[in-house]
């Protein structure tokens, strides 16, 4: 093969390889874009369904709302203030205020005379959630937990797809179903709220134990100082008593000594008289 022929062959091979590489890159980019588009569509569908569920649940009767707020596991379900008020994390302050009024009226004990005690509990849950969201810092924490729950599920979904692709299998997973994705995010979010609450209670119990220990030490220190003060006072009093006793003893000793030194006078001799 001549030099010119070899050069032409090389150029043809290079152009063909380049075309193949571009085709592969375009296909990969297309697949990535399609996958990203699928995820975006799944999330939009999920978000739409959540809104529909919130809208459906928002018209529950007083009795249904009380049941919802006091259902088994409500201790943890109600940790999410947005879940309690059935509003979106992006809701405005005015929307939150409006929703709070609606719910508080529905579950107010005065409106539920046949179930006053449970109505009071439901009302307190609504009131607590609303007050929490009025605090910017507390609201931000709640929003962060919700975002963390969604990001956790999305990360797991990406890991599953990578593993399936590595194994040469279809990258379609069950979470691609909007309903499954919604449930997964909901469960993970509730789990995060519960874990944070458990940690908060543990810290609170630890702080309470520490405060109790410090208080007991203070009381012990005060009692010890009191005992020492009483001992010192008793010692001073007893010392004064001992000194007085010793002085009295010495005084009696001297008196006795003086008595012992007194000489007996001989009887007077009467002179004999003579006639």
TrEMBL record:
<feature type="domain" description="J">
    <location>
        <begin position="80"/>
        <end position="147"/>
    </location>
</feature>
<protein>
    <recommendedName>
        <fullName>DnaJ homolog subfamily C member 8</fullName>
    </recommendedName>
</protein>
<comment type="function">
    <text>Suppresses polyglutamine (polyQ) aggregation of ATXN3 in neuronal cells.</text>
</comment>
<keyword id="KW-0597">Phosphoprotein</keyword>
<comment type="subunit">
    <text>Interacts with SRPK1. Interacts with HSP70 (HSPA1A or HSPA1B).</text>
</comment>
<dbReference type="GO" id="GO:0005634">
    <property type="term" value="C:nucleus"/>
</dbReference>
<keyword id="KW-0007">Acetylation</keyword>
<feature type="compositionally biased region" description="Basic residues">
    <location>
        <begin position="253"/>
        <end position="262"/>
    </location>
</feature>
<feature type="region of interest" description="Disordered">
    <location>
        <begin position="204"/>
        <end position="275"/>
    </location>
</feature>
<dbReference type="Pfam" id="PF00226">
    <property type="entry name" value="DnaJ"/>
</dbReference>
<dbReference type="InterPro" id="IPR001623">
    <property type="entry name" value="DnaJ_domain"/>
</dbReference>
<keyword id="KW-0143">Chaperone</keyword>
<dbReference type="InterPro" id="IPR042858">
    <property type="entry name" value="DNAJC8"/>
</dbReference>
<dbReference type="InterPro" id="IPR036869">
    <property type="entry name" value="J_dom_sf"/>
</dbReference>
<keyword id="KW-0539">Nucleus</keyword>
<feature type="compositionally biased region" description="Basic and acidic residues">
    <location>
        <begin position="204"/>
        <end position="245"/>
    </location>
</feature>
């Amino acid at each position: 093969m001549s030099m010119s022929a070899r050069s032409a062959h090389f150029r043809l091979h290079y152009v063909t390889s380049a075309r193949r590489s571009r085709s592969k890159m375009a296909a990969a980019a297309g697949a990535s874009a399609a996958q990203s588009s699928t995820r975006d569509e799944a999330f939009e569908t999920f978000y739409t369904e959540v809104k529909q569920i919130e809208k459906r649940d928002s018209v529950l009767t007083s009795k249904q709302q009380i049941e919802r707020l006091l259902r088994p596991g409500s201790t943890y379900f109600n940790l999410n203030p947005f879940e309690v008020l059935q509003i979106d994390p992006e809701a405005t302050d005015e929307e939150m205020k409006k929703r709070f009024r609606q719910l508080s009226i529905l579950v107010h004990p005065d409106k539920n005379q046949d179930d006053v005690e449970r109505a009071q509990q439901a009302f307190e849950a609504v009131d607590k959630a609303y007050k929490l969201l009025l605090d910017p810092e507390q609201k931000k924490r709640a929003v962060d937990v919700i975002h963390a729950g969604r990001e956790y599920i999305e990360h797991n979904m990406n890991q599953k797809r990578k593993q399936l692709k590595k194994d040469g299998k279809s990258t379609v997973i069950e979470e691609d179903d909007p309903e499954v994705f919604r449930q997964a995010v909901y469960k993970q979010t509730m789990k995060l709220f519960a874990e944070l609450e458990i940690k908060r209670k543990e810290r609170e119990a630890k702080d309470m134990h520490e405060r109790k220990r410090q208080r007991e030490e203070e009381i012990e220190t005060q009692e010890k100082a009191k005992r020492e003060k009483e001992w010192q006072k008793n010692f001073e009093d007893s010392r004064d008593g001992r000194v007085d006793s010793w002085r009295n003893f010495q005084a009696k000793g001297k008196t006795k000594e003086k008595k012992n030194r007194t000489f007996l006078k001989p009887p007077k001799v009467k002179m004999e008289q003579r006639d």
